[in-house]
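Appendix B: complex inputs.
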Amino acid sequence: MLETIERIFDRVLLPCLAAVGDWLSNFDLAEMFRQGVYFAFHLSLTHYLLLAAALFTIGLLGVMTRRNLIALIISIELMLNAANINFVAFSQYLGQSSGSVMAVLVLALAAAEVAVGLAIGLYLYRRNGTIDVEQFHTLRG
Amino acid sequence: MNSLTLEQLIMLLPELLLLVLAVIIMLLPERARTMAWLVAAGGLAADLLMCLSLWGVNDYIMGGAYAVNNFAVLVKVMLLGLAMLNVIGSHDFTARVYRAREYYALLLMAMLGLLIIPSSMDFITLVVAFELVSITTYVLPLAELNNPQGGEAALKYFISGAFASALILYGLSLLYGFTGTMNLQNCAQAMAILGAHPLLLVALVLLLAGFGYKMALVPFHWWAADTYTGSPSPTTGFLSGVTQKGAFVVALKIIVVYSAVFAPLAALLLGVLCAVTMTVGNVLALKQKDVKRMIAYSSVAHAGNIGVGFAVGGTAIVGSFVHILAHALMAIACFFALQIVFERKGGTMMQHFRGLGKQMPGLAAALMLLLLSFGGVPPLLGFWGKMLMVVPAVGLGGWYLVLALILVLNSALSLVYYAAVIREMYMRPAEIELLPPAADKVKPSGRSYQLALWLSVALLLAFGLLPNWLTEICSSALFNSMLPW
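Resulting structure:
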């Protein structure tokens, strides 16, 4: 038992402490600030991917939490646009055109999808007077 | 290389014909329902012949984005034949829906997308074709405007479908960024060079989730039962028998791309999904009182069955294709039979089926054959697909053996609820009287449903009794053109 604890201290905790101590002793606020500024002002592929990932996550959360059909469609639109940003960013980064072509087509697809979705929403509103998707639960089991 | 010559355009004639026919149908006068039906059915038949004449051609056009080979021709002929059955049966249905022209035009546009899917060798073509199929079918559950559940069915289908498209496109963007190409072949080669990378796995999971929605595999199946129950039966036949099968073809293409690097892992993921799908689908179907909803859940279970072949790979993929054809035929025929029962007895609950064997002997016999085929009873086609998947799986051993065992046990389990319907039809006295067949102009007699039903049953019996011919064609087409590209 004691040996085990000793081993844990020796091999895991003490090296970790040493690493943290090293990092703290070498910590340079100015250097970190400089790196941060560099990252913020020199756009690279990473920025676009992070933006797309954030948009995709916001859209995903929106689809899972929103109950209004319009809000759902907007959330899905956010997810599609995240894919679009990815396509364009990769296309620029790789120096190819096929990603940009895909982005243009995705825009058209998204427009068509929204048109159909809004038509369905209009039908439901005229018939039931609501577009809250939780109101539609006659089919279950 | 990218220009399109006139000779190459001939290979695109089936697709162009469908596009022209869809436009022609929209230009017909509002009242010309039979004319629209005739144009759609005749056009699909002509298309089927055109596709058949392309058998044996092996060529790439549009700079390698579009391939015409035996695999593509096989899938096209299969889907066109199934869609034709569905259109033939829809005549009496469209005689009383509000917009018959739009119904046929949308079906033809969906078929256009489905014809492009098996040929596309490029993610751009693949996704655009698949979205064409999805977007045109979102409104099909609304074909019958006075159906109270149509709106809910369309809503659920639309939300799940659009969400799945977003997942697919995001996964595809990651895949594109990582492999640097949109071409399926180049993508597979790039993956073989790059090796297994976690980002590729993320893309695979997103794509599997997206196509899982479209194929109605289990964690993503919630829309399927509702949409299939809420739509009018002829539409359900098309959604479950034709569009859903298109998703399987796309999934197969993506699995083939991934098989270079992720073969065991992708197979394991898909195998687990399929095992869960079969079991959950069958258990949920067991407790249904509405036969239409029961068949809808059994469609979910059958989606799992088909996926087993993809997970096992090799010769089991032939079994998958036989089962795709078998389930599509059974689903189309069964939903037409349910539509007849719905129109003549006023519903599709269990009690509406009591005594059907005496009241409508022909229909009951056809329905019994279909249900037995669903359950995988030997002389029918539903058996051969499962058989061709189980045998290679058992041969491979390991966890594939468990998968095969789950498939066989699920077939036995599914027979319980199919047999319950058969028992209601033959062993119980009738409680609900038949409605008279209304043969006036507004509500025709339902002869077209009968025609499509019997055609499908005849095909099912013919293929079931002579399975060799079908499996040979399937295996030659698959292994000559699809798998080694």
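The radius of gyration of chain B is 22 Å.
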